[in-house]
Model the fold of this input.
Amino acid sequence: MKYALVTGGSRGIGRAICISLAEMGYHILINYKSKNKEAHNTLELIKENNGSGELLKFDVADQVDIEKTLGSWINNNKDGYIEVLINNAGIRKDNLMIWMEKTEWNEVLNTNLNSFFYVTRLVLKDMLVNKYGRIVNIVSLSGITGLPGQTNYSAAKAGIIGATKALAREIGKKKVTVNAVAPGFIKTDMTKELNENEHKSQIPLARFGEPEEVAHIVAFLASEKASYITGQVISINGGLST
Ligand code: NDP
Done:
């Protein structure tokens, strides 16, 4: 059994990634925080495609929960190891810096950045021992250019970009690759309050992207074919920024 863990797999970009990786033959561990029905929907979609998976509910911002739930899963499944990790779960809590509450800062940093540390270090050891692994971190255009109203989110995503590059150099010799994918505007719950018509004039391809379009590049980076790509940040934003 080949295992892939997708954090935030219940909806949006994470769901599309789960489906793509299942098509590649991975048994998918669908992580999510609260939306049980949506997570079951992802699993059903995988099964309809003749794939396999299971739900693994934990809060990526909670180190204790991760060590308990993901740690137990790893201990109980010695038949294989998680060879693909997609750090995708994320939240936004936008506010101008001058009004930003400490909780808005901390929740976004914990969920988007600290989660990378908590989750990745648990699955890394088996990748290194087996001398094969793929880690893909979903970041954002906001972490590259910075966006007003998103100092917390931009800081978290920029932090992951730095960690991606550092870890890639640290473990390249073990044939484990680490890359980041930076989407622009993608049609999910996270962007549902944005008016596509208002924004599309800034986007050369004149539309928001689909989650499946992000999933295609993630699936490639997670495949054996991407064996000579590491430490990179791949943008997928319709040309919004080059
Ligand atoms: P959605 O809001 O549609 O989905 C978020 C997913 O993350 C859900 O599965 C949710 O689980 C999960 N999640 C949130 N918090 C936690 C947590 N603490 N623990 C575990 N799971 C959690 O987001 P998108 O699909 O749009 O975003 C996916 C990633 O892409 C994020 O990292 C986001 O920052 C990034 N991104 C998105 C862009 C966009 O335009 N949509 C643009 C650039 C980057 P549950 O369903 O249980 O709540």
The pocket of NDP is lined by residues 7-14, 31-35, 38, 59-61, 88-91, 111, 138, 140, 183, 185-186, 188-191 (CB under 6 Å). The chain has a mean pLDDT of 98. The helical segments are 12-23, 36-48, 63-76, 102-130, 142-145, 151-171, 196-199, 211-221.
